[in-house]
Amino acid sequence: xxxxxxxxxxxxxxxxxxxxxxxxxxxxxxxxxxxxxxxxxxxxxxxxxxxxxxxxxxxxxxxxxxxxxxxxxxxxxxxxxxxxxxxxxxxxxxxxxxxxxxxxxxxxxxxxxxxxxxxxxxxxxxxxxxxxx
Length: 133
Ligand SMILES: [Zn+2]
Fold this sequence. Notes:
By secondary structure, this protein is α+β, with helices and mostly antiparallel strands. The strands form two sheets. The chain has a three-stranded mixed β-sheet with strand order 1-6-5. The protein has a three-stranded antiparallel β-sheet with strand order 2-3-4, with no helix packed on it. Helices cover 41% and strands 20% of the residues. It starts with a helix and ends with a strand. It has helices at residues 3-7, 15-28, 38-51, 54-75, and strands at 76-81, 86-87, 94-97, 103-106, 117-121, 128-132. Bound molecules: zinc ion. Pfam families: DnaJ (PF00226), Zn_ribbon_CSL (PF05207). GO terms for molecular function: ATPase activator activity; ferrous iron binding.
């Protein structure tokens, strides 16, 4: 359950914004008005129980951050530097091989910006590599 999404807000929303959104949605999905989606009404109430209290909100935010980091870590195949890339003889590109057999292709001009991290998606699967320039 994404508490922020239920209230149509995000992590940067202020307490006042969350409160306003909560009251609007509570009216919108009140069982008297919208009895086809009663579950949503209770979900919205549950989301407010988490986000309406600064302490539980903080805990929720931390848990979400952790989850995002873990998801990202699962998708990252490798963290490499630009010198680990191989030069393709046929195309004017650099590449790195993925375990799926396809390649991560990197245009030379994207390597010109120094001290940045490029996220490159594999051509064949959902993995990414992070290239430090
Ligand atoms: Zn791949």
